[in-house]
Structures are given as structure tokens and as C-alpha cells.
Amino acid sequence: MGWPLLGNMWSFVRAFKSQNPESFISNLKQRYGETGVYKIKFFWKPCIIVCSPELCRKVLTDDEQFQLGYPLSNLVCNGTPLDCISSSVNKWFRRLTAATGLNQQESLSSYIGSIEEIVIGTLEEWSKTNKPILFFPEVNKIAFKVMMTIFLGSGTNDTSIESMEKYYTDVFGGLFCMPINIPGFAYNRAVKAREMLMKGIRGVLKERKHDVLNSKRGLIDFIREADDPNGEELDDELVAIILLLFLIAGRESSGRVAAWATVFLHDHPRVLQKAKEEQEEIMRRRSPSQKGLTLDEIKQMKYLSKVIDETLRIRTNVFALFREAKIDTYLHGYFIPKGWKVLVWQSAVHMDPEIYPNPQQFLPSRWDDFKPKGGAFLPFGAGSRTCIGADLAKLEICTFLHHFLLNYKLEQVNPGGPVKYLPASPDPADNCPAKVIKIP
């Protein structure tokens, strides 16, 4: 269980501060064997790590024995009287989003125009700047704006979105850090940023009440019109929390992956050329009268889909998915007491050489005729809590890469620089300063 008080946090931080975060799990395997299940102390609590495909799938799909167990979820929910991440609310929310058609073909098709408008305008703006931009934060801003547009609809002020994005970044940075609420620490910044972010969201919701006729409806309008699971009208605080949860899921799974995929493509010229040729072929088949991408064209991006899957594998957004034992239970023959955290360490599965030979290499071709077994590929989780917006995230990524590959190239200032893996997700340590150059 590691050191007194600290538990295994020191060895975890040391591994993730290095350029080899997989060493944390590798050390456990070396010391205790290839069991796929390990006992540690993490965030001052006893925890179980699972890192084999079978056990990962078991934990994520067994709602009878395991529930959500993120250590700092109160940073998001802030003591709301309704448990915003409970099983009953999760089921209700999934039914609601299904009714509003979030992942239905018609809805996905309707989002493409808004996404394209944001992507095309931003890429053009980048290409006109004479100095390098910080590529990763800027791509994340695109993802944030797309999410806000889809969920709030049109009519939201760009300045409001930009200020909320800054606060959101600090909130996300506090989700996986130690909860030290003292000025100067990341958690303290996150608490303050949450207050400002929620204030901004509530302000936008208030504006929409008075300007419904001049705004295009968004998903949030359908949510506000629905009753909560108890049959009562949703208040603005809970609606704002729901939006914040969507932003956490949506921005991290689209912005970061789109940015990493762009970098990987430019670091691998042959892969870049093949991906670009696919996009050019799609354009050649397009009718002269057609304006913009269609969902059918995105479905034709077979090679680009492999690029995205390979990016998701190598750059898993978070190192683990947190669950908690609801009852005393057994897993793989080991007893797990009620209340213990269970960490589904999907990044270890994605980097397992037994499943993915040469796992450190970026090889989209590994997905040719390859279908990973259950639990071996978990970028969007599994079971009842599989990411609701997975299809939407892939739609955003494909749209961004389509326009970037056809019209732009990336010139990094410091290619191949170090990666920081904390507080939660892998990003270039320098945020990837780069020039976006328009191709004549």
C-alpha cells in the first residue's frame, strides 16, 4: 500500500512526471506478477487497479457491484441536493439525450454545418497570424466553442464563450489534483474558476429565457423543458452542472485528440500523405453543387478513422476510469470491500505489447482487419456509462482533420518535445507552439 499517509502517490507522480508513465503499472507487474489486479493507496484511499481487458470490461459493465468513484466529483456538483452523477440520473439523462437525437443520424448531420463554420473560420484566422500559436490550447478552444454551440444553440456571444473556456481549463486542471484549497494550489484555482464558470453559464441561460425567438435551439433547451427523474422542474443550477459535465466529456475527447492526430500526421509524412489522398478522393467524388461535408462523406473516411483510433490508443485522455465497490465483492478471486475505489487503468491496456505490438509506435495500419477483444480498447469507456457523445466527438475530429489536411500544414517550433501527463491528460509540455500555413 505504499508509504504511510502518501500511499502510492509518490511513485505515481514520479512515473507520470517522467516520459514513461507506463512504468507505474510495469513496476507493479514486476513486483507482484501479471495478475491484472493490484492493491494500492491512492488519494489517501485504498484502491484496486485493474489493467487486463477482461477485468476492465467486467468493472465497467457491472452496475450492480460498481458505481462511479471519482475522488473530486464534488468540484463539479458542488453539493447540489440532486446527485448529478448517480445511476438513476445517468439513466434518465441518457433517455433524454436519446429522445433529443444527440447521436442520431439526422442530428449529427445537422451539426456538421455549425462545426465546419467554426473550424474553417478559425483555421483561416490562424493562417493569417505572423507568429506561432499555441496549437493545443487553440484547438481546445475550437472544441469548446463547438460544444457550447451545440448545447446552447446559436446566439451565444463569442466573448462570453472565450471567458468561460478559460475558467473551464482551470476547473478541469483541478479534477485530478490533491484537494488542497489554499491559494497557489491547482485545486484552489479550480474552485474559484468553477464559481466564475457557473456564473457565466447561468448568465447565458438567463439571457436565453428572454431571447428564445432570436436564438437557434440547442440541446440545453430540451433539457430545461424536461422534468428531472423525480418529476420536478429542473433548476438552472442543475442545468448548468449538466452542461459542465458535457463540456468535460466533450472538449477533452475531441479537442485533444484532434490536436494530437494533427501532430502525429505531420510527424509521419507517409501516413499524412495517405490520409490526405483519402480526403482529396472524397472531394473529387463530390457534386459541384454540394456545399460542405455530409455524414456519408465522413463515413467514407476509413483510413482517417484508423488514424483517430490510433491517436485515441496512444494518447488516452485520462489514465484511468474511477469506480467504487457498491458492496463487498470478489474480482478475479480477490476480495474487495465495499467503498474501495476500483481504477480501470485503460492506458495500461492500450499500451500492452501483447495486444498492440510496438505500442509506442504510431501505426494506423495496425487497425487493418483488427478488432480488439472486449475491454482492450476503451477510449470512451464501456457499459452503461459509455460516453454519450462518442459519435459527436468523432464527427468533430473528422471535420477538423478534413479541412486541415486539404488546406493547411503544421510547422512546429519544437517538434518531438516532452509530454506532460499530469494532472490528468497527456499534452505537450510547451503546448506545441506552431505555425499553421495555408497551402496554395
Description:
By secondary structure, the chain is an alpha+beta fold. It contains 16 helices and twelve strands. β10 (419-420) and β11 (427-428) form a beta hairpin. Residues 80-85 have low confidence and may be disordered.
Characteristic key phrases:
three-stranded antiparallel β-sheet; Cytochrome p450; alpha+beta; 16 helices; 440 residues; five-stranded mixed β-sheet
Inertia-based shape: globular
State the CATH topology: Cytochrome p450
CATH architecture: Orthogonal Bundle
Low-confidence stretches: 80-85
Assigned CATH superfamily: Cytochrome P450
Largest sheet: 5 strands, mixed
> On the 0-100 scale, what is the average pLDDT?
84
Measured as a percent range, the helix fraction is 40-55%
The ordered string of helix (H) and strand (E) elements is HHEEHEHHHEHHHHHHHHEEEEHHEEEE
The share of residues in extended strands comes to 5-15%
Write down how many β-strands occur, each being a DSSP E stretch of 2 or more residues.
12
> Within the largest sheet, what's the order of strands?
1-2-8-5-3
- Based on CA atoms alone, the radius of gyration comes out at 22 Å
What's the number of helices? 16
Provide the number of structural domains: 1
Task: Indicate the structural class.
Answer: alpha+beta
CATH class assignment:
Mainly Alpha
Distance between the termini: 59 Å
Membrane topology: Single-pass membrane protein
Main location: membrane
Binding site for heme: 387
Organism: Hibiscus syriacus (Rose of Sharon)
